[in-house]
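Chain X:
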Amino acid sequence: MPPQSWQPSSDSYPRRQAAPRKLLAIADELTENGFVLRYRTGETDDGPSGKEGTFLICSFWLVSALAIIGEEQLARDLMERLLRVASPLGLFAEEFDVDTGRHLGNFPQAFSHLALIEAAARIIVAERLSEFS
């Protein structure tokens, strides 16, 4: 679920209450060692067999979403974990195997890096906004 911003209206209040619960459910139920999976391969038959790695773009999206809903510490913690798994050149692949610590799939993956930039910006904005409250 890519992060989105919206201007809340009075009729969107139930949706705004549900968004944090859904994001925290993703963080709890669709992660492996804190990194986000596309889906649970054991529960979905998409053709290919076997386990796949966690998707770094999804993990960076979760960082952004956590920052947006005010979970700044969770966002920072996950961002720091993600930054620690960068390659020696500071690059990210499409997927990351949390068991082996190896990058999988396309390397380097531009979309992972775009999501990294977005996540960093969201954390910075959240920190700046909290200075005013």
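Chain Y:
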Amino acid sequence: MSVACFGGMNSSGVAPFRGIYGSREVVLMHRNDMDRFGITEGEIVVLETAVNDGVVRRVENLRVVAYNIPEGCIAGYYPECNPLIPLWHHAEKSKVPAAKSIPVRVRVSHVSGIGARRT
């Protein structure tokens, strides 16, 4: 899967135009992808960057929110998902980190967290 990091949520954990409240520690997934991987809404997952450069990049305790996003993609907020971005993964000319497309692995966590709720 590929993750895109984006802003748009205030520091109190509210992104009303996305219908997300309570926490910024979420990952948005298409329901078909959730079904394909056996993940349920509200489940806590771990994202790990899917590159083999010897550096483990991981973000834990993200609550899954079903969302109308393209299949095969997930989305999360920054700076919460910044640890997933390899420093060498950037635009060639501007050197801006390529936060819009980061290959990741998603796995279910065995810890419970607070996370967000969607209304």
